[in-house]
Design brief:
With 120 residues, the protein is mainly alpha-helical. It is built from seven helices and two strands. Strands 1-2 form a two-stranded antiparallel sheet. It is globular.
């Protein structure tokens, strides 16, 4: 177990979101940036839209909880990264109004309430 802050997790998300941010910007008609690194508002959009994180985890990530430090193990961290990577590559995230070819996974996660929550 290790103690981490929400900023550590958000930094992981910045790196993950940056992998497809150029595609998302083009799909949304935002050609004003030559940067290939995600902005804060883009990472917030990602956090609020990801179907694989529960509300409490999303609130933790944006600093809306009194806790700023959590204990996590390697398995929880690996799950966090895997679910974020699954969503960042989903066409529903990248393209506006697109029904994902991976929608069946989202349906499974949501119908069975399989969402990552804070590890406590």
């Amino acid at each position: 177990m290790k103690a981490i802050t929400y900023t550590y997790l958000v930094q992981l998300l910045y790196d993950i979101v940056s992998s497809t941010i150029e595609q998302r910007r083009i799909a949304h008609g935002k050609f004003f940036s030559q940067e290939n690194y995600a902005w804060g508002t883009e990472v917030e959009d990602f956090i609020f839209s990801i179907p694989y994180f529960d509300r409490q985890l999303k609130n933790f990530l944006v600093g809306n909880l009194p806790e700023s430090i959590i204990l996590m193990d390697k398995l929880w961290e690996a799950s966090f990264i895997t679910l974020a990577e699954l969503w960042v590559e989903d066409e529903e995230w990248i393209y506006p109004g697109f029904t994902s070819k991976m929608q069946y996974l989202t349906d499974i996660f949501q119908s069975e309430k399989i969402q990552l929550s804070l590890p406590y």
